[in-house]
Amino acid sequence: MSTQRSTQTITAVPALVPAADERYADLADRRLATALSTEDAAEEAGSLDPLERSTCYTHRRWLHHCVSSPLHVIVVTGHRWCRRCSCAVNVSIDQLTGDVALTCPRCHEMPRGAANRQLVRCCRASLAAAHDDPAVRPLREAA
To answer: Which of 11, 41, 47, 98 is most exposed by smallest CB count within 10 Å?
Structure first.
């Protein structure tokens, strides 16, 4: 049995908000790349619920850009699902007003349930993050 001790020291301290990693180097939207990296790290560390993301690891997009994909329907939890009609719900996102609506194509109502409310909340957060430009200030601040 060896009793040698390592003399290596850690010289890099991890950043609180990691820079976009190489998985997202090809993305033109650097803010999206950084958000994806940050949420990936938080999810891997166990401090972010994967269903609370504002970005999508699978599609490498802001959640509100890809939430209408069939991959975002989770029958078991009720995400994008109408339990009463047993079908996937439609998603409507107005990027100008920030409105997010889920509507069942059969009963034409917003399905109840925490999962669908969570999805609406995450899409709104995604919209806000995607359009939050620190270079743009309200008129009263610019004066």
So the answer is: 11
